[in-house]
Amino acid sequence: MDAVTITTTTIKKTTTMLDDFFVRAILAALGVAVMAAPLGCFVVWRRMAYFGDTTAHSSLLGIGLGIVLGIDLTIGVAAVTVSVALLLLAMERRVGIGLDALLGILAHSTLALGVIVIALTPGVRVDLTAYLFGDVLAVSVSDLALIFGLAAGVLAVLVSLWRRMVAVTMDEELAAAEGIPAPLYRLALVLLLAVVIAVAMKIVGVLLVTALLIIPAASARGLARSPEQMAVLATVIAATAAVGGLMLSLYVDTPSGPSIVVVAAALFVASLLPVSLRRG
Q1: Which has fewest Cβ within 10 Å: 105, 131, 160, 197?
Q2: Which of 48-52, 194-198, 266-270 has the largest mean confidence?
Q3: Band of the pLDDT at 55, cuts 50, 70, 90?
Q4: 13-279 CATH
Q5: What value does the mean pLDDT of the chain take?
């Protein structure tokens, strides 16, 4: 009888623990989705889809510098991604090269520098898998606090700057004629993107962050009739992909991050049907 009682208690504790970590995973994915999806609208509008990949490549340099300088790796990654964003803005208007080409140059340059820095640091081995793919199922309470604190800050900034950022994104010359300082709002956008990717990538992986930036916004674009509607639809799609992907991971026993991306991709394909019917 005692053995049965002990076994039952152990099962209940294990179930509670599993429930807790799964709830934390869902909350983390939702937190990332809520802040990434509205930002993703600007990424899609400005054709900056490669920005996430550039940030992923530059993260290696941030990790290397963090190790060499003895600072927290997240701080190192955030510092490098913000620096890359600022460098991107400085170069975009002066060198006469397209944004996609600049992103490619910065991505591979920072990746090469990161490899060299780590190679020159003796006794250092870096596993980039955690940064690229993350482990949303291992999210802690402190990670959740960081995600939701960042999400609240990002959404507050977006709400306060939304109309002017949209105006600058749609037509910079017209926005400038109306007295809106376009460079300032472009700077705000790339800094928000850099910080969100740098902080969230350690927790959920850059694959998931960049996917939730791009795919939901691309899905919502053909369905929405206004920028605001697109942002709301993108957020709903991202949240649906987050929860659906984690449920798929739970029942099919697949990796959580890729599962979320696969569900997001499926929702994108589904979003093409009404657009095709409307055009047909």
Answers
A1: 160
A2: 266-270
A3: confident
A4: 1.10.3470.10
A5: 81
